[in-house]
Write a structure and sequence with these properties.
It is a single chain. With 282 residues, the chain is an alpha+beta fold. It is 34% helix and 14% strand. It has nine helices and ten strands. It has helices spanning 7-16, 70-73, 79-84, 105-114, 169-174, 205-221, 226-241, 249-261, 266-280; strands at 21-25, 29-30, 87-90, 97-102, 119-122, 127-132, 138-142, 145-148, 154-155, 165-166. The strands form two sheets. Strands 4, 5, 6, 7, 8 and 10 form a six-stranded mixed sheet that branches. The protein has a four-stranded antiparallel sheet with strand order 2-1-3-9. Helix 6 (205-221) packs antiparallel against helix 7 (226-241) and helix 6 runs parallel beside helix 8 (249-261). The radius of gyration is 22 Å and the shape is elongated.
Length: 282
């Protein structure tokens, strides 16, 4: 006769695999601070990469409560928490990974078109794509897409399927905010840059075309933060297509045209493109 693992059993198994685990209450939320730590009275620092001097044995401070210490997980202080836990979460950054949280079918389709295949986990509404490597976490980097890594937790839904790939530049680019304008790019650079002549990684000739079409659509669908959307889209296109020599002036002109249709000036388009090139070292 087999028994269903408890949430504590799951957390201990994760800890044994060097994956920091923590309990979640109903609604996929971490347990609140204990009375002694309410409003951070203990001096802990929940917004830092490590907790502060708090010595409270309770699972305080959200993601920072995640631990690989089985003695903590099994301690008497944590026992009441596990009895009321609704799920188990883990700290992706602490496990050395990044989770791309895809919340709907459109987001999943975008990932298949844009990101390299990696380990995937089915969620209630979509999928988690898990990559080897860490980065800053960021919510709503595009419609239906969150990034969970450092200083964040993700619900544990199983080990997933597929081989885990290294964290790609295309994911890192999603969380990059546009810097202040680089020292003025030449104004003659109205439709700049061809590729750098590297080896082409595209599976088919349609891969680039689909990527450009999706980038144009992303700009066209933006209803707010137009500047940031244009920059992040340029960054994503260049991180995927900027090194192989396939990106032509025609492709770039399509991106600029879409941006200018949303009210961007040619000068801002040029600056955003130049900043994206600088950020990626192209």
């Amino acid at each position: 006769m087999t028994t269903t693992p408890t949430h504590l059993d799951t957390a201990l198994a994760l800890a044994a695999a060097d994956v920091p685990a923590l309990p979640l209450r109903a609604g996929k939320l971490p347990f609140g601070n204990c009375p002694a730590c309410a409003r951070n009275a203990c001096g802990g620092r929940p917004n830092m990469k490590t907790p502060g001097p708090c010595v409270c044995p309770q699972p305080c401070h959200g993601w920072a409560a995640a631990t690989t210490d089985p003695h903590v997980l099994k301690s008497l202080e944590w026992a009441p928490v596990w009895r009321h836990a609704a799920a188990v979460a883990y700290h992706p950054g602490g496990a050395g990974v990044t989770v791309v949280d895809l919340d709907n079918a459109d987001a999943i389709a975008w990932a298949h078109e844009t990101l390299p295949a990696t380990r995937t986990v089915t969620t209630t509404r979509g999928e988690h794509w898990i990559y080897r490597g860490t980065m800053a976490s960021s919510n709503a980097v595009r419609p239906g897409v969150d990034i969970k890594s450092l200083m964040q937790y993700a619900r544990w839904l199983g080990p997933g399927v597929g081989a885990m790939a290294d964290l790609p530049d295309a994911v890192r680019a999603l969380a990059v905010k546009e810097p202040f304008p680089a020292r003025r790019a030449p104004q003659a650079l109205s439709v700049p840059l061809r590729g750098h002549g590297g080896a082409c990684r595209h599976r088919t000739p349609t891969y680039l075309e689909r990527g450009i079409a999706m980038a144009v659509q992303r700009i066209t669908d933006a209803h707010s933060t137009i500047h940031a959307t244009v920059y992040r889209t340029f960054l994503a296109v260049l991180s995927t297509h900027g090194r192989c020599g396939c990106l032509t002036d025609t492709h770039v002109a399509r991106l600029f045209t879409a941006a200018q249709a949303k009210g961007e000036s040619p000068r801002h388009c040029t600056d955003a493109w130049a900043n994206a090139l600088t950020t990626l070292g192209l």
